[in-house]
Design brief:
Dehydroquinate synthase-like, alpha domain, Rossmann fold, two-stranded antiparallel ribbon, 8 strands, alpha/beta, 15 helices
Length: about 375
């Protein structure tokens, strides 16, 4: 067994149907008095923001509900100004990966600019983050955020990793996912599955991350098709949230690889939604890495119900890749880059950008040139 390093995070996690109603009590335990909410207008329309407003009352002193996908740099400035004006001592992200990422970004930016508020507990190096996920993206469990920066009319996604931005309080309430549209259910669910797959063959994998990743594969592949077919199936939604939690835990404690590196480039530079990019790239990244990772992914095939005895690990994992490809297609997600607006002429440039991506360089099968990445992108195009 390889040597490993594992970093744990101090988090309080509350999970269960109707758990949002306990938000105020949970915040009181931490002593936070001036909370800012980062979210989207869709969360206002579906009634989730009003529910948070009711749960927090006067403790909610600021609301920024215009978060766009991929955390845009100009929006960070707007949200940061609001946080500074209202002297917040905690920031809550409600929604998918972008609102939660915005909460992390503002927290880190306040510290970076020396604007941490005196009301924050001295034991907290940053204004603490609270997360209430309504998708399966997993950002609530990780020490990472990404911001899309715009320089000279060019957009690129820059990621930051710092253990201090891990949310201190997380609430999983499956009732908040019952109205998640089928496409978002599918795309963020595949995102969670990809977290598990890359955690299994990460160059920094460890026994805890492997254990939770395998449990995540089992839960996600069982629950996701049911969530897609019957969105108001509370049992399936609860199991899927549990799977996303496990996937996020696996992601939080290992370095990601080729798959997520390519998805970040496609999101930040080509505008492809992160979950959609996951659905397109995952089978191709798994196949590219097959020679180096078959033994590590064979347990995932077993977790998906694929027989592995009496056959090679490569054959079993190839069947798992085909099953994942079929799952993605069965949920009517795009499966080619051309179908989401990526031009063939863009592929060489995207490959060059990906070559410099830290996650790509952490791939278990070494990547030494952009031609390897362009070949993967062309296979997905």
């Amino acid at each position: 067994m390889q040597d490993f390093r594992y970093t744990g995070f101090a988090q309080e996690i509350l999970s269960g149907a109707g758990m949002l109603a306990q938000l105020g009590q949970a915040i009181d335990r931490f002593g936070w008095q001036r909370v800012m909410l980062c979210s989207t207008q869709s969360q206002r329309r579906n009634g989730h923001i009003p529910s948070v407003e009711q749960a927090l009352g006067e403790r909610l002193v600021a609301v920024y509900e215009h978060v766009q996908p991929h955390v845009q740099d100009f929006q960070v400035e707007e949200a940061l100004m609001l946080a500074r004006e209202r002297r917040v001592d905690a920031i809550l992200g409600l929604g998918g990966g972008s609102p939660i990422g915005m909460a992390k970004t503002v927290s880190f930016a306040l510290e970076k600019r020396g604007e941490k508020q005196a009301s924050s507990p001295i034991t907290q190096p940053l204004v603490p983050v609270i997360a209430i996920p309504t998708t399966y993206a997993g950002s609530e469990l990780t020490p990472v955020y990404g911001v899309t920066e715009h320089v000279d009319e060019q957009a690129r996604k820059v990621t930051v990793s710092d253990v201090r931005i891990v949310p201190k309080l997380i609430i999983y309430d499956p009732l908040l996912t019952l109205d998640l549209p089928p496409e978002l259910t599918a795309s963020t669910g595949i995102n969670a599955l990809a977290h598990c797959i890359e955690a299994l063959y990460s160059i920094t994998r460890n026994p805890p991350s492997t254990a939770v990743a395998l449990s995540g594969v089992r839960a996600i592949t069982s629950a996701l098709p049911r969530c897609y077919e019957t969105g108001d199936d509370l049992e399936a939604r609860t199991e899927m949230l549990n799977g996303a939690l496990l996937a996020g835990m696996a992601l939080a404690h290992v370095s990601m690889a080729l798959h997520h590196g390519l998805c970040h480039v496609l999101g930040g530079s080509a505008g492809v939604p992160h979950g959609i990019a996951n659905g397109i790239i995952l089978p191709h990244a798994m196949r590219f890495n097959l020679d180096a990772t078959a033994a590590l992914l064979a347990p995932a095939a077993e977790a998906m119900g694929i027989a592995t005895t009496g056959r090679s690990t490569e054959e079993a994992v190839e069947e798992a890749i085909q099953a994942i490809y079929s799952l993605i297609g069965g949920m009517h997600l795009p499966q080619r880059l051309r179908d989401v607006g990526v031009q063939e002429s863009d592929l060489p440039h995207l490959a060059q950008l990906a070559l410099a991506n830290r996650s790509v360089q952490n791939n278990p099968r070494p990547i030494s040139n952009a031609a390897q990445l362009e070949a993967i992108l062309r296979a997905a195009w």
